[in-house]
Amino acid sequence: MRYSELFGKTSRDFPKEEVAKNAKLLLRAGFIDKLMAGSYTLLPLGFRVKEKIENIIREEMDKTGAEEILMPLMHPKQIWNETKRWEYAKDVMYQFKKDDKEYALSFTHEEVVLDIVRKRLSSYKDLPIKLYHFSTKFRNELRAKSGILRAREFLMKDLYSLHASKEDLDKYYFKVAEVYIKIFERLGLKARMVEAPGGVFTENITHEFQVLAENGEDSIFYCEKCDFGQNKEIAKVKKGDKCPKCGGLIKEGRSIEVGNIFPLGTIYSEKMGIYFADKKGEKKLAWFACYGIGTTRVIGALVEVLSDEKGIVWPKEVSPYEVHLVGLNHKAEGVYEKLKGNKVDVLFDDRDISAGEKFADCDLIGIPIRLIVSDNTQDKIEWKERIGEKTELLTIDEVLTRLH
RNA sequence: CGGAGUGUAGUGAAUCGGUAUCACGCUUCGUUCGGGACGAAGAGACACCGGGUUCAAUUCCCGGCACUCCGACCA
After folding, report:
1. What percent of chain A has pLDDT over 90?
2. CA geometry: angle at A29 spanning A27 and A34, to 5°?
3. Residues 318-347/A with CB < 7 A to strand B
4. What confidence tier does A385 reach under pLDDT thresholds 50, 70, 90?
5. A390 CB contact with strand B at below 7 Å
6. Given pLDDT bands bounded at 50, 70 and 90, which one contains residue A17?
7. 3-state helix, strand, coil in chain A (%, to 5)
8. What is the pTM of this model?
């Protein structure tokens, strides 16, 4: 992609109103646009990051045997009445009336997925069922804030699983927990699984995935040595205590919640009539759980945690482009073509502006590898990574070898 | 929803009872070309909306709305 043709250029100044680091950098670097408080467009660069994140999640979800679907965002009141959540969750739901019918914009999909399942579930042989989708969530947050971290409309991956027994649910539940940690690792985030209350979803103990971050909205108690942690609302440990797992020191830290998993049990199945016939032919309630990852929030969390004073620093796996090619002379065109020919995902800064300005934009946009073609590099290409100052002169073949 | 702050070109700021100034960005031309270059010439604003006071309001007053921050709630 030629930068000159990219929609959504960088800007020199920080947007005045924004305080949150993620909002400042993502807006300035041209990844997002704000429509209103808590409502953002993903511009081409931001969209690419979102795609990368989703692809990683998709890969890992599929490995657990889950299947991808896509559910509607506008729901009839009656489905929400089945669980009484039309009333109970009305503060977070966008509810509206049109021609005497009442609807809600989806803030989650338990009711919908259970409706889909009950139409098709009859035998234990149909279980387990594991369905997920990537979709928009609407939540009437009393106050949208922290840029992309607390929006009223945001993207989320949600997975729902149904099982014939508590044992089978638990097995899959903790399997997913493991997979979540792995997903966040692949996304470049160190997430801790902490115990938490379930809000409008359940009275059971649930688990959150928290990433330590200075500007996080949440606060957790965690062990500095091992992966132990507890949500502050539920914490039995306190700052300064010994970790019950390894004896390390407990610390308190701000954090961003990037995912959560809820073992909902049979309560929803009871309310919505999710039954199956077991081996003896007896009617049984299905065991149910749901699992979410805030994909747009992950973008914000990455910026909060990894960026530096010059701009964003994307991990390789989610970077909008693999390399940022800076052209300072005519030879750059040839290098661009060659990279493209070798299927390298390259953003080519072909603008007729000063070198310094291009470098500043590289640092701001945050693609992990910067390549420069200039008179100084002669027939070679300069390789520099976003983190660190080291530069190397490589031939095009060496560059291609390193990239593949 | 309570509290605080802010609304002036695309962005950031200045002004002040007499109809708006600057910087960056943008356009054109020329010179530059390795860390946000330089010169010249341009374009771009119903001063958030509505009402009031006044001969005159961007400026003062009232009422909205929007955005940001703190709190309550939450992925």
Report:
1. 87
2. 20
3. 328
4. very high
5. no
6. confident
7. 30, 35, 35
8. 0.96
In a 13 Å sphere around the CA of A386, the CA atoms on its Cβ side amount to 27
Q: Which two tokens stand for residue A346?
A: 């390259």
Q: Is the CB of A389 under 7 A from strand B?
A: no
Within chain A, all domains assigned CATH 3.30.930.10 are found at 3-306
Helices (H), A91-234: 110-118, 166-186
CATH topology assigned to domain A3-306: BirA Bifunctional Protein; domain 2 (3.30.930)
Residue type, A198: G
* A22 C-beta less than 7 Å away from strand B: no
Instruction: Say how many CA atoms lie within 13 Å of A159 toward its Cβ.
Output: 30
A91 nearest nucleotide via C1' and CA: B73
pLDDT, mean of residues A188-195: 94
CA distances to A206, A208, A261 from A235, in Å: 13, 13, 18
Q: Is the CB of A202 under 7 A from strand B?
A: no
A36 Cβ within 7 A of any nucleic strand B atom: yes
Domain at A321-403, CATH homologous superfamily: Anticodon-binding domain (3.40.50.800)
Q: Could you tell me if the ipTM is greater than 0.90?
A: yes
Say yes or no: Cβ of A285 under 7 A from any atom of strand B.
Answer: no
Residues of chain A with CATH 3.40.50.800: 321-403
